[in-house]
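the two lines:
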Amino acid sequence: MSRIVLATRNAGKIAELHRILDGFEVVGLGEYPDAPEVPETESTFAGNALLKARAIAAHTGLPAVADDSGLCVDALNGMPGVLSARWSGRLGDATGDKDRANLDLVLDQLADVAPDRRGAHFACAAALVLPDGTERVVEGRMHGRLVDAPRGTGGFGYDPIFVPEGETRTAAELAPQEKDAISHRGKAFRALAEIIDGLLTGGRA
Amino acid sequence: MSRIVLATRNAGKIAELHRILDGFEVVGLGEYPDAPEVPETESTFAGNALLKARAIAAHTGLPAVADDSGLCVDALNGMPGVLSARWSGRLGDATGDKDRANLDLVLDQLADVAPDRRGAHFACAAALVLPDGTERVVEGRMHGRLVDAPRGTGGFGYDPIFVPEGETRTAAELAPQEKDAISHRGKAFRALAEIIDGLLTGGRA
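prediction for all of em together
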C-alpha cells in the first residue's frame, strides 16, 4: 500500500483526510517532527497547498498531499480566504480559543450587514506533489450562508456559523460523514484521491 | 453665510472638514444631540454617505454633508473598506483603543504577506443632501502602501501605518495641511465644496 504524507498538524484536518483517503497508508506530520514549517505566503489556496506539498515531498522523499482552505465571505469581498486561520491575529491568540475568536470577529464584522447579504462559501485546494516533481492541484467549494450566532460542536474553524445550501443545520451540527459528503475538503480530496490512484497505482481501483 | 450640518461626531473628521469647508458656517452633530444614529449598512462608501446625509437633512431641515471613508487593502481584497471603523469588532472594543486595535489587526493579517503586496488606498465618498431632495456624491482616493509598524501621532484611524505614494512618512507624520492636500477626504471634500458653492450660492466663489 502506498504511503502518503499529509502536510498538516491540524488534528481536525487529519481526521477528515483519513476518512476520505482510506485506500492509502496516510501519515501526518506527527511522524516527521523535523519537517519544515511552511509559511502560507501565497494569495491563493492553490498556491499555498502547492507550497506545503512541495516542501514536504522534498523533506520526506514521499508523495505529499497538502491542502489550504478557508471561508470566503461575500460581504468581506471573499475574505478571510487564505487568512482564515489567522483572521483575528494576536487579539485572537490572547483569547486562548483562536477558532472562536476568528468566528466571533467575522460575526462582529457582519453585525450591520443585511440578512440577505450573508452569503459565503468554504473553498479548499488540495495538492499532490510526487518526489519526481509531478504536481496536481484540485479545488472544491461548499456554498451557504452565515448565521448570527455559533451552533454545534462538530467540525472546527468556522463550521459553527456556516449553514450549507439546502441545510438548516450548521456544518458543526452535521455528522462527520454528512459533512464529508458535501464539504469543500471532501470534494477536493475525493477528486485528488482519483488522481492519486491513477498516478500511484496505475488505476488499480 | 450658508449653514451646513456635517453628519459626524468623529472629532478627527470634524477638524479635517472644518479646514476644507471654510467658506461656510459648518456645524457638527454636537449641535443636534437628538440627531438619529444612522447604521452604515450599505456595501459602498457612497451608499453609506448618502444614508447619513439624507437622515441629517431630514432631521435638521438644513443642507447636510456626510462622508464615509476607509482603508482598502489590496491583499485583503479591498477590505476593511466600509468596515474600517469596526474591523476588530468586540475584540477591539475591549482594548480601550479601537483605532490601535484596528490597525494592529490589519498588520497581523498582513504578517505573512510579501513586501511587494502591501499596496492599499484610502477612499472617501462625500455626499450632500439638500432639504429639497437634491443629492450629490463624489469620491476621492489616496494611494500608497502599508508599513510594518505604526509611526506618527497625527491624523487618526489607520494613518500611522499608511505611507502615501511619493512619501516616506506615514499619513500620521504629515502636518494636517500636508495631509489635506493629498488625502482622499481632502480630494472628495474639495470636489464637494465646488458643488456646494454652485448649488447654495449660485457660484459666488
